[in-house]
Amino acid sequence: MKNNKKVPSTKFSRVFQTLTAEERFAFGRYVRQQSLEANSYCTQLLEALTDSKTEKWTRSELFAHAFPQRTYQEVFLRKQFSALFGHLRAFLIQLEWQDDPVGQELAFLRQLKKRECKHQFDLVARRLSQQLAEQDLQDSQQHYYKYQLASAQDRLFLQQQVRRYDPALQTASDELDAFYFSKKLELSCEMHNRSRIVEGAYESRFL
């Protein structure tokens, strides 16, 4: 049974519309790479959605353009939209990671710890520690990175079950304190600034 309703604004389309032309191209490439076949259902649906005439199509027309070999099925179409949104979610997370190289290194360290690759862990941790120490701006984010690094080092130390002093635990505690207080000061300053231009009293507790 065909559906002659206009293609609605789905959660996928609402997010997809925010992508730049360059990001759309990269997303299309990403979806094709994730597909087991060159003409996967997700790739076919995405190609149909990027057609300039999509806004004038009914759901049945969209289905016919995306899946010409199949008979219209609403459940099938919804399933492909859901799968495509899953790809978009993963793609946007990947974009976010690209802008956070330190976060990537910390994620790599967590995997090395999990796999008990101590030698490689120590090499990456040493390089990352030096990189963080050389940063000109020691803001709250830098303290948080240092806390995460020291925390990962401490957890790896615990895995070894060695009874000796290790400075990572102390460093993790100190950097967590520095992160908390520096972030608290940042938020308190922002509260003060906003209180001057908008109605409403912010309370900076524990300051």
Can you walk through the features of this model?
With 207 residues, the protein is mainly alpha-helical. It has nine helices and no strands. Helix 3 (41-49) packs across helix 5 and helix 8 packs antiparallel against helix 9 (168-197). It is flat and about 70 Å long. It starts with 10 loop residues before the first helix and ends in a 10-residue tail after the last helix. The relative contact order is 0.07. The model has no long low-confidence stretch (mean pLDDT 88).
N-to-C SSE string, H for helix and E for strand: HHHHHHHHH
Low-confidence stretches: none
Tally of separate helices: 9
Approximate shape: flat
Give the helix/strand class: mainly alpha
The total beta strand count reads 0
Q: Give the percentage of residues in beta strands.
A: under 5%
| Largest sheet geometry | none
Distance from first to last alpha carbon: 64 Å
